[in-house]
Design a protein that fits this description.
This protein is α/β, with parallel strands linked by helices. It has 11 helices and 13 strands. It has helices at 35-42, 62-68, 117-120, 140-153, 197-206, 217-221, 252-261, 329-338, 358-363, 367-374, 378-397, and strands at residues 3-6, 46-51, 56-57, 60-61, 72-78, 96-97, 104-107, 125-129, 158-161, 224-228, 281-284, 293-294, 312-316. The strands form 3 sheets. It has an 8-stranded mixed beta sheet, sandwiched between helices. Strands 11-13-12 form a 3-stranded antiparallel beta sheet, with no helix packed on it. Helix 4 (140-153) crosses helix 5.
Length: 406
Amino acid sequence: MKKIVVSLFTCAILFCTNTIHAQSKKQILPGAYQTSEYFPILKNKRVALFTNQTATINGKHLIDTLKAAGITIQKIFTPEHGLRGTADAGEKVSDEIDPKTGIKIVSLYGKKNTPDASDLADVDLMLFDVQDVGTRFYTYIYSLQYYMESAIANNKPMVILDRPNPNGHYVDGAILEAPFTSGVGRNPMPAVYGMTIGEYAQMAYGENWLKVDSAKATQKKNWSLTIIRNKNYDHRSMYILDVAPSPNLANMNSIYWYATTCLVEGTVMSEGRGTEHAFAYIGHPSIPNHTFSFTPAPRVGAMSSKLYGQKCYGWDLTKLSPPKNKIDLGLIIEMYKSFPQKDSFFLRPKTDIPTAYFFNKLAGNAILMEQLKAGVSEAEIRKSWQPGLTKFKATRKKYLLYKDFE
């Protein structure tokens, strides 16, 4: 029988000062803070740690906390952007030896995305701690999925240190259709799915999204997954990150807008990479009647992207409040209508088929692009999303570890 253990070290409905319920003064504490819950599990084990710069406890990295406790970190695995979170989006990262600790660092966003048997031969347990942002096109959840698949295939128990989802207070967007599966979307889920990394892990397992060889079926059935829960968190919380999850999501404004403006990556417009407000500065040299402008240029974490060195006119979303519980479809419609050359708004792939368009991979289907071209209203687009969202929400409920927003 499948063994999934969820830490009991949580309180009932408690909120911190950075939540919607400002009257409560209870601080939200990620799973990593609950050391009494997982140190005993890690003791005397050779631990493989999947992590990056976001795994901190009171400003101290989890690596240092584990080493100070005498826990053996056999090796470190890292996701997109690397251990320090400074590599460009999509940049392949090489393996290395950490100069501070001497621990081997294996990149799972370079030559491979899954630990192999040789990586895990000297490992007793696999630990995961990475801060997610709660959107389908953000790659950390797929890194988790690959990691889980490897743990099952190699019969290694796994512990996930859960972290709050800064966009965990709503669910919105079209459900990803199977033909549009890619590196920015693997599973039939909406753009904003409203789950923590631990809850997502339970769904990936329970909905059979994990790719495991049929010969390993019994191994999967008996595999051990332990989730260390957040304290004082639920899905009405508005959690404020204290470490940027990646170089182009440097502040909470960008993180909140990301669910909307990541779609801009599939267009010829700049999504603000190469500025201090990526995903909050949006524009193009040909946008008329806009007084706001910016000029993207190379910077750490964004050394190359669209329109570098060109003055772009458009939208300064640092001056606007993002919607609290939905994708701003009206803004996407406005951007499309504002662009003079409609037939060149979407990035055109080499092969002109719907599944090749990056915009469609981000949207999860080819329908949204056609709706924008046809001038379909926001209300009608949202109506087309509802059947899929209703079905997803019912499935999602089965895997929640925290009180929901509805």
